[in-house]
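New to this. Comment on this protein:
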Amino acid sequence: MRRPAILRAYLLRSFAPVFLGALGFFVMLLELVDLFANLWRYLSLDVPAASILRVMLLYAPTCLSYGLPAALLFATAYALGGLYARNELVAVFGAGIKLSSFVLPLLLVAALLSAASFVFEDRVVLPSYRAKGAYSRELLRQSLSRSNADIAVISRDGGVVYRAEFYDDATQTLSNLTVIERDGGGRPTARTDAPSARWEGGRWLLSRARRFVAGPDGVWLESSHGSYTADELDEAPDAFRSQNRDVKEMTVAELKEYVGFLSRAGLPSAEALAERQKRYSFAFAPLVVVVLSSALGGGFRKNVLLMSLLASLVTATGYYVTQMVTMLMAKTGLVPPAVGAWAPLAVFACVGALLFRRART
């Protein structure tokens, strides 16, 4: 029978224009929030309108990514609510078509958008967000220093430990450096002190170094060197830089490398691990919100536009607040990174499934 196919096509025709309009609305809303948050800075520095517009254009892909779940939720709830208000949804159910079967095209659209959003996030959103951040800092005259003070770095699986008072990123030099070499049991086998060291030829070159090496009889032997280097001193400058890199600006591949670097250097990696897991979980958000809104949409008979908008804003806000809390818990070590990233999606998926089972059908 062609009746179900015709009704599903009718649902898609009701859904598509509302979805596009809602997506534009939420993108503009997010753009305005970011604009007004920095407007006073732009005005105080006499930033040209063309430069502000460029910042907004660079931020548009990020707004599109954030606005997609809310737009899907609103459009689905509004389309189904409109059908219910006009008693058309009753006719659909009277024809023997279940809600799960009727909204199948919307679920397929959501699944396609979920897959596309993951690629779009990695290849378009993140590069543009990174460019937006750099350009904004340039306009607002904000510098980003990668130099660092009071550094301790563990490399070579604990075999080499660096301790330095200061790292200068501009010259790639370390000040007041101490290097401890250890055996497999963690016992020190050598110590090297130097007032300065510079990165040269893929290794650290220590100046005026004093070296202490444990002899076979347990006596430490001292030697002095005008300059000293060794194959073991190959930990790259990235390990000594200030770790104020914004993980939100990294692609999935970059996050993977960054997590590996933090692990090798003995630095906290929970934040980067949680952000990496969040990239995968957030890709499923369109599918979850369509299930949720399919259950909600059939309950709006009056004030469909207002109720759909309210439901989408409340749900989106609830999701992002829950995600913010769980991610903060993951970064501080209260929960594992995977739990912090996937918990909001799991909670809203369960709520959506429960509401869907109780929805009119």
Notes: The chain has ten helices and six strands. The first helix runs from residue 3 to 44. The CA atoms of residues 86 and 301 lie 8 Å apart.
